[in-house]
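LAB NOTEBOOK - FOLDING QUEUE
OPERATOR: T.R.
BATCH SIZE: 2
PURPOSE: Compare the predicted structure-token outputs for two unrelated chains run back to back under identical settings.
PRIORITY: normal
REVIEWER: second-year student, initials M.K.

ITEM 1
FIELD SEQUENCE / FIELD STRUCTURE:
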Amino acid sequence: MTVAPASRLPVTVVTGFLGAGKSTLLRQLLVSSGLRLAVLVNEFGEVGIDGDLIRSCGFCPEDELDGRVVELANGCLCCTVQDEFLPVMQQLLQRADQLDGIVVETSGLALPVPLVQAFRWPEIRTKTRVTGVVTVVDGEALSGGSVVADPSALEAQRQADPSLDHLSDINALFDDQLEAADLVLMSRADCLSEEAVDRLRRRLSDQVRSGVSVLPMARGDVPAALLMGLD
């Protein structure tokens, strides 16, 4: 697959709680798409292992890893936009001609909207175009009555972030992630019955904006064209 030349790099923001399946989705995308993608990863604290998982998937030559996988580990990205995200993006865009797109994986604590708004900064908006926000939800956890599989791990992440300055109620965060979504992916759908998947799709469809698709996902297998173009 190739991306047609464009004046601005497509950017997809992937959000969702810790353990929802974001890194599995990204690993599959990087390995199977054939695209030259850069990834910004925002998990942090003792649970911030996503960067290592992505680096180890073999999606690019080892000497390119430092320029293709960037870990933002100083706190929730939407709270550190100006201090950390903007400088990193400016540096990354210096080699925009070597990339087909950028994927930003937020932490499970981040609010997607402030991050999307950061792409309107003059230094960034002329070189990027945000295709949309992809929210990954844990279908198995939702089916069991919880929006996150491991609330204690999420709480540990929250405690490890001194920069956090917004709401931290889990259900409120979940609602915010759904409201910001341009696409919702329900992970671990292969662990559920068809009836359970249909029930969750109807529930989630009632919580997102009109026209936003809710799609089941197994092992991160989603077409690259959908993720990077949200067609």
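ITEM 2
FIELD SEQUENCE / FIELD STRUCTURE:
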Amino acid sequence: MKAARVVEFRKPLVVERVPDPTPGPQDAVVRVEASGICRSDWHGWMGDWSWVGLSPSLPITPGHEFGGEVVALGKDVQGFAVGDKVTVPFHYACGHCEYCHAGVPNRCESVGIYGFSWDGSFAEYVVVRNAGFNMVPLPENVEPLTAAAIGCRYMTGYHGVMRGNVKPGQWVAVQGAGGVGLSAIQTAYAIGAQVIAVDVDDEKLEKAKQEGATAVVNARREVVPEAIREITKGGAHVGIDALGIKDTVLNSVLSLRKGGRHVQIGLTTSEEGGYVALPMDLVTCSEIEIVGSLGIPHPDYQGLLSLVAEGRLNPKSLIEREVGLEDVNEVFDNMTNFRTKGFNIITKF
């Protein structure tokens, strides 16, 4: 099969032929019909995130947002058949630790990430480990392209809004109008929240308005906390940071009203190395909550897919373009220069 491989950090990926995968007893092989190119893949290619154990060993095939068709099943896999259309949460889970049993397998003690922990979906085929627990069947009217759009950024933005406990009518300020941010904006709008999008790119902010943002703030031209407090007459009820940059974390926290909730989705960059100083006296005196959000629990995936199937959420509207396997390096270059405006999905292998 053909696969796009990282053989050296920050060097062009190599598209080459590698052996077709075979499933272990509990695994499945999925023919990839669509695979998103996520900024997390870019971070892996950059060699970032070693401080959270996510700098991959090379060579490796990136890719963790995918939808496709089951073509082979291990002998112990139950509940699926060859020919089923499926997707997976980007985070593998073991299915038997205390977190998996508690219904939050995104916190699994043995969590693994496609394209970081093992080969991912920038390839014609991908192995899904522990498939009976980790594969998710697609509803009839949710095709693999939409599944790839949901696969990391959209489901992460959706879960972030759930973690924020967003209510209709509340003000939600989203820092960053990239893939995760736009997903959170669309979800919060669907719930009935009033959404403020914050970014440094006017084109992205215009897209945010198309996806439901009530107001936008350009962080290059405005002092973000002041602008949000003025718009909301006191501060946002919920702040969501979709980037993980020190400035966006602080802007989110400083923009909250008393009793507000900050949801951290974005992992930090090499500049922060996982640490951002917070105004703890403000957090204390204003009773601000700080909440982390990773992916989505497997049990919640069906609810998300149902909303997509019903047309109440529309991840496909965030797809910027469909590309081929040979175009990954161009997309990574665009990400390096912050030129992407939505999801880039591999559909030609």
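REVIEWER COMMENT (ITEM 2): The mean pLDDT is 95.
FOLLOW-UP: none requested
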